């Protein structure tokens, strides 16, 4: 496969852009070589600048649950753009979006739109601290909540792939108020809250971890989080930036029947445009300015293009049978991968919730950051490159999720399972 043009563009990009990329996860650092520069994409397919074609399971890191350039989403964006790209004043579209989100997500009675998932989690935490008048927050090792200072502690894929343990620039005074615990360990949560529950403003969690690869919550884990936070007057924040509208219209909270106090959203609700949102009961949301005194603002928040794209996406997802089909296709793909691994004698642990899935190259059961860390990263590197060579584009790190879209075909899934079989053999050597 010829990738000369991507290679030369990457060299040029590195002269002008730190590391040649506008987000470090794109740099292919963990898998060697250089990133592909993308020319265009349509449906489940990507084309790079050298004209190579790929079946895409990265979906721009999650948002594109209806594939690339879906005609209805493109049309909605065009229509919106013709009427102006930003007004800095409210629009009816924002009401429609809010109503749709409130309709779908059990915990949300009021919602504020922002421009990224990072902004959503930062703002939710500020709200939790403002509401409870407490400073400390609790998060889990290997959970990623964007790059806000308070949250950039033991935070998952991007830093894991680069081997960055702690981020310089996050000041000690802030970091010391972020307490981290192992994922899926309810006892550790109970113990910590028993010790300092009265100082804790909130606990933030990915209800389905998606940023150390997919690690589903163990039975009872989320219920423990709900019980403990309620008991100690701390807010429970579900970061559903990935899982929201990915595992169902109501996200992980609906799937598992646990209602958090605040929820953060992003990725899918922007329909591929930059969006984030945070919401919850009115009791909490009324503390945000201009009603309350917790300040949070944004020049492009609720942007009409992003609202149009996001709404169209949510409407597409609301059609009958979408999630059932995603479930069936994802199961078929993962069953194929599992069979291949068994036949090739490759130790692998599989996880999947709906259309988000992982294949961990380890013989341990993966339940938290520590067990994820047992994966054979050299094996992943060889596997990744063999898949790429076969025209299958997956995330360039062991610690990321794979995503199925509604537009992947049965033939493409078969083709992917075959590529996986060969790639496992190649990687095994
Ligand atoms: C991607 C992600 C974020 C950050 O969203 P951005 O839009 O990249 O800022 C936050 N939380 C989770 C769970 C995510 O997956």
Report on the structure:
The chain is of the alpha/beta class and 429 residues long. It has 2 domains: 4-69 and 320-428, Aspartate Aminotransferase, domain 1; 71-317, Type I PLP-dependent aspartate aminotransferase-like (Major domain) (Aspartate Aminotransferase, domain 2). It contains 15 helices and 14 strands. The strands form 3 sheets. The protein has a 7-stranded mixed sheet with strand order 4-10-9-8-7-5-6, with helices on both faces. α8 (221-231) links the parallel β7 and β8 (235-239). The chain is globular. The two termini are 20 Å apart. The mean pLDDT is 96. Bound molecules: pyridoxal-5'-phosphate.
**Fold-level CATH name of the largest domain:** Aspartate Aminotransferase, domain 2
Shape: globular
Percent in strands: 5-15%
Could you state the oligomeric state of the chains shown?
single chain
Strand order of the largest sheet: 4-10-9-8-7-5-6
**Quick one: biggest sheet?**
7 strands, mixed
Q: Portion of residues in helices?
A: 25-40%
Mean pLDDT: 96
Low-confidence stretches: none
Derived structural class:
alpha/beta
> Termini separation (Å)?
20 Å
Count of individual beta strands: 14
Count of alpha/pi helices: 15
CATH class of the largest domain reads Alpha Beta
Write out the CATH superfamily name of the largest domain.
Type I PLP-dependent aspartate aminotransferase-like (Major domain)
Number of domains in the coordinates? 2
What is the alpha-carbon Rg in Å?
Answer: 21 Å
**What is the CATH architecture descriptor of the largest domain?**
3-Layer(aba) Sandwich
Query: Could you tell me which ligands this complex binds, including any ions or cofactors?
Result: pyridoxal-5'-phosphate
Subunit structure: Homodimer.
EC number: 5.4.3.8
Modified residues (N6-(pyridoxal phosphate)lysine): 267
Catalytic activity: (S)-4-amino-5-oxopentanoate = 5-aminolevulinate
């Amino acid at each position: 496969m010829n990738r000369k043009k991507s290679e030369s563009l990457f060299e040029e990009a590195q002269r002008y852009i730190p590391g040649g990329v506008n987000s470090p996860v794109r740099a292919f650092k963990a898998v060697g070589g250089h990133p592909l520069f993308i020319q265009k994409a349509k449906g489940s397919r990507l084309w790079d600048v050298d004209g190579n074609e790929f079946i895409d399971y990265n979906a721009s890191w999650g948002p594109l649950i209806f594939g690339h350039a879906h005609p209805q989403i493109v049309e909605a964006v065009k229509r919106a753009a013709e009427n102006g790209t930003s007004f800095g004043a409210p629009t009816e579209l924002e009401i429609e979006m809010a109503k749709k989100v409130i309709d779908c997500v059990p915990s949300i009675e009021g919602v504020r739109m922002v421009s990224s998932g990072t902004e959503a989690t930062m703002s939710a935490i500020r709200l939790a601290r403002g509401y409870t008048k407490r400073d400390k927050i609790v998060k889990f090792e290997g959970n990623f909540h964007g790059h806000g200072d308070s949250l950039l502690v033991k935070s998952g894929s991007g830093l894991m792939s680069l081997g960055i343990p702690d981020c310089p620039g996050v000041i000690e005074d802030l970091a010391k108020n972020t307490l981290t615990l192992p994922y899926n360990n309810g006892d550790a949560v109970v113990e910590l809250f028993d010790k300092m529950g009265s100082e804790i403003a909130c606990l933030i969690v990915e209800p389905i971890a998606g940023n150390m690869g997919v690690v589903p919550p163990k039975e009872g884990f989320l219920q423990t989080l709900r019980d403990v936070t309620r008991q100690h007057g701390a807010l429970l924040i579900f970061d559903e930036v990935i899982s929201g509208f990915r595992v169902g219209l109501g996200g992980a909270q609906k799937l598992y029947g646990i209602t958090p106090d605040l929820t953060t959203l992003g990725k899918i609700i922007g329909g591929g445009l930059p969006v984030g949102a945070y919401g919850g009961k009115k009791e909490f949301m009324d503390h945000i300015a201009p009603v309350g005194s917790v300040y949070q603002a944004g020049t492009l928040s609720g942007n009409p293009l992003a609202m149009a794209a996001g709404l169209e996406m949510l409407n597409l997802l609301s059609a009958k049978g979408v999630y059932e089909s995603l479930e069936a296709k994802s199961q078929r793909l993962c069953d194929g991968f599992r069979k291949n691994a068994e036949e090739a004698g490759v130790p692998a642990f599989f996880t999947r919730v709906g259309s988000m899935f992982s294949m961990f190259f380890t013989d341990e059961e993966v339940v938290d950051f520590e067990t994820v860390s047992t994966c054979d990263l050299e094996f992943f590197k060889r596997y990744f490159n063999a898949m790429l060579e076969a025209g299958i584009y997956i995330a360039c790190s062991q610690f990321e999720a794979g995503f199925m879209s509604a537009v992947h075909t049965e033939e493409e899934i078969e083709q992917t399972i075959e590529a996986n079989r060969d790639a496992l053999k190649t990687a095994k050597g």
